[in-house]
Design brief:
By secondary structure, this protein is α+β, with helices and mostly antiparallel strands. The protein is built from 6 helices and 10 strands. It has one domain: Glutaredoxin (3-Layer(aba) Sandwich), CATH 3.40.30. It has a 7-stranded mixed sheet with strand order 3-2-6-5-4-9-10. A 3-stranded antiparallel sheet has the order 1-7-8.
Length: 198
């Protein structure tokens, strides 16, 4: 009899909390539950200006934008940054919006990233905003206006570096297929997509 009671208690203990299909903590259960139209806030540097906290949606001002996920020590990122900057400066690609987002805040400190990408004296200067979110950054669901429990990297398809994406006007994200090293033909195609009326 004691063995039967013990078995019932053990089974009840092991199954407790596992019978409800709902997620009571409010965390995302599947990819289908991820917010589709998102933004986030982080310190943002515009060339030599200090890093005020800015919202991605506010920075892009409703324009379709090329996102470049970078790391301070990522040589492919340096290559893409240089090619995009040179294309904008010489007019080969024009009228496109670009934002760089630092990917590796857990491993690279802010100063490494700033000396690499921000300001005229940086090694690979960006002439567009550079956002420096941390590992705990959560996204805002633009459909509800609420901050979610979804992490930045998860919402942006777990980017590696370099990763190029298109951030659409509605806050949706489209990952692009591209090579590790900068490729002019790929960049030209991306620039055309950014300018297309969808």
């Amino acid at each position: 009899m004691n063995l039967r009671i013990f078995s019932i208690l053990l089974i009840g203990f092991l199954l407790s909390g596992c019978v409800s299909p709902e997620n009571s903590a409010g965390y995302v259960d599947s990819e289908e539950d991820l917010p589709q139209n998102v933004s986030f806030e982080s310190p943002t540097y515009f060339q030599d200006q200090d890093g005020d906290v800015s919202d991605l949606r506010g920075i892009v001002e409703g324009e379709r934008t090329l996102l470049l996920w970078v790391g301070a020590s990522c040589r492919g990122c340096h290559d893409w940054t240089n090619m995009i900057r040179e294309g904008i400066e010489n007019g080969s690609i024009s009228d496109i919006s670009v934002v760089s987002i630092h990917r590796w805040s857990a491993f690279e400190d802010e100063n490494q990233t700033l000396s690499r990408y921000v300001g005229d004296n940086s090694e690979n200067p960006s002439i567009w905003p550079v956002m420096l979110p941390d590992e705990n950054t959560r996204v805002i669901d633009l459909d509800t206006g609420y901050l979610t429990t979804t992490g930045l990297y998860e919402a942006f398809d777990d980017p590696s570096t370099p990763t190029l994406q298109i951030y659409h006007e509605d806050g949706s994200v489209e990952s692009l297929q591209h090579s590790y090293w900068a490729d002019w033909d790929e960049l030209s195609n991306f620039a055309e997509v950014l300018k297309m009326d969808l």
